[in-house]
């Protein structure tokens, strides 16, 4: 992808030297060629930096942060495209992914972002409109995956950065903040193959994902109380569901104190 920077691809990586080459190959194979590729290395020590020197990309290296939010934000700060996509280095695009997402935004100028399905779940849910407000469905389930969302720069300028305090669910938080302000358009096809290596942050031990989901849904509930009264009941239910899931996890992990705190918060979540 070279030439005029119509689309910026922000690809983030950490200790994925072997997988990164495959992901980059899928980026270079895109049928749309107007764009730039920014690869942000989160302090890898496996030869990633040396490999990137051989690739036609803008390479950025940051000290290891341990959260996807930091490298994504570093890449977004450098992106110059009118449309922006964020990609993980263990995922693979179908060749027409960017072209189809960009076409959806071109055909629907009212939409702030376009998103598509992925191979393990090609259709998000029947309740999601083809074009329009997807905030409430997103409160029920994070059906938008990093790598299969294309966002207008004007939208990202308003929504801001990924919240590192929501990791490893900072993507869900971002989609909610985005959908709260802008309609989306759905491309009803699987355009990406999602990787799931054993050391993925989404599988981090110690209940990290449960803590993140509590923070994300708590933020959404607070936002609804201020700006979207019609969704308060749904947001409260999502928040409570996150707390109950966390309590169940910690109960099985014999973390009784955390279990009690989660359940007490459920009772207070009015």
Structure commentary:
There is one protein chain. The chain has 270 residues and is of the alpha/beta class. It has two domains: 7-199, Alpha-Beta Complex (Spore Coat Polysaccharide Biosynthesis Protein SpsA, Chain A); 205-268. It is built from ten helices and ten strands. It has helices spanning 17-28, 48-52, 69-78, 97-107, 135-140, 153-159, 170-179, 208-227, 232-252, 256-268, and strands at 7-13, 35-41, 58-61, 83-88, 92-93, 113-117, 131-132, 149-152, 184-190, 192-193. The strands form two sheets. Strands 3-2-1-4-8-6-9-7 form an eight-stranded mixed β-sheet, with helices on both faces. It has a two-stranded antiparallel sheet with strand order 5-10. Helix 1 (17-28) links the parallel strand 1 and strand 2 (35-41). Helix 7 packs parallel to helix 8 (208-227), helix 8 (208-227) runs antiparallel to helix 9 (232-252) and helix 9 (232-252) runs antiparallel to helix 10 (256-268). It is globular. Residues 122-126 have low confidence and may be disordered.
How are the SSEs placed, and which strands pair?
Blueprint: E1 7-13, H1 17-28, E2 35-41, H2 48-52, E3 58-61, H3 69-78, E4 83-88, E5 92-93, H4 97-107, E6 113-117, E7 131-132, H5 135-140, E8 149-152, H6 153-159, H7 170-179, E9 184-190, E10 192-193, H8 208-227, H9 232-252, H10 256-268
Parallel strand pairs: 1-2, 1-4, 2-3, 6-9
Antiparallel strand pairs: 4-8, 5-10, 6-8, 7-9
Helix pairs in contact: 7-8, 8-9, 9-10
